[in-house]
Amino acid sequence: MLTSRTYSTLNNETPYNLCFVRHGQSTWNRDNRFIGWTDTPLTEDGVLEARVAGQMITKSGLLFDEVHTSLLRRCIRTVNLVLMEMGQEYIPVHKNWRLNERSYGNLVGRNKKEMVREFGVDQVKKWRRSWDIPPPEMDEQHPYWMGKDARYKDMIQKLPRAESLKCTVKRSSVYWNKTIIPSLKDGKTVLIVGHENNLRSLIMQLEGIPQDEIINLCLPRAVPLAYRLDKNFKPIDRPDGKLDDATGYLRGEWLGGDSAVKDILKRDHKQVYDTAITENLETTDNGDKWKTWMQFAIGENSPEMDAKACKKEQANE
After folding, report:
1. Backbone phi, then psi, for 133, in 5-degree steps?
2. Cα distance between residue 244 and residue 168, in whole Å
3. N or C: which end of the chain has fewer CB within 10 A?
4. Residue 213's domain spans which residues?
């Protein structure tokens, strides 16, 4: 059932508003594998994460004029689910390869923790998060070579065999300058649904994060990060005048709350780098903790709460 909504203060305080959302859990997120441009679908939990992200945005009152995302279905489906929750399926959605995830080269398909055991924490962290150190290159015989995919048939020569964040910034900045900035100049409120490293490349430029510090910035899945921008399209300080407590780098507002994001990032770090942990935190009870804080963040109208209420009602019949 549709409910009435009003524009939030984010929309009213400045004509320049922007929100980032990383996609929900995909099958290879769940399995702790390097993904890159591989087109892995959302899991059931990923669908729920995306729906919750939409409800969090709805609760904030923020509404959008258009959406920008990649050519990969984990992002495209996240867009669809977010907009369905918001009742905004009617707005334009623009898809572009320049918003695809960073290419992980020859690491694609490999288990992240196994790579940590083989190459060490420092090397894997450099491959995943550093500014200008790309992973080993992928060749055309690789089982996940993107050149086999019909969506890239007209850009075979542009396909990256491996990318550092520096490479990702180079392609994402083209889209930012030619497409996102003009939309913002027109006063449009923009949603970008993307992948962790591609979003990091955009946020690095937006926030002016130094190259030697970007290795420390990580982003959680499906937690909206909302920005108010000034006339130069630079972030306006948060109401408390501080950088976010979750990462220590951002002036945007995590709609799920800083403490909740901090907890997710701690779990994600353990999932990849803590070799003493042998269980998969994405599939154990620990991996479901996000549901609890999401429910707390958005109240009793979350999909999970609705499901519990439905089960309780069925049990009482």
Report:
1. -115, 100
2. 24
3. N
4. 9-316
Asked whether the CA dihedral 85, 267, 249, 200 is positive or negative, the reply is negative
Mean pLDDT, rounded, for 265-294: 81
Burial tier of 155 (Cβ tally within 10 Å: 0-12, 13-18, 19+): exposed
Catalytic site residue from 49, 85, 101, 253: 101
What's the pTM? Answer: 0.90
Sheet strand arrangement including 16-22: 93-95, 66-69, 190-194, 16-22, 225-229, 253-254
Count: domains in the chain: 1
Helix (H) or strand (E) holding 213: none
Is 45 within a domain? yes
Does the annotation count 195 as an active-site position?
A: no
Domain membership of residue 3 (yes or no) is no
The per-residue pLDDT for 7 is 36
How far is the C-alpha of 53 from the C-alpha of 28, rounded, in Å? 20
Residue 101 known to be catalytic: yes
Residue 239: the pLDDT is 86
Tell me how far apart the terminal alpha carbons of the chain are, to the nearest angstrom. 24
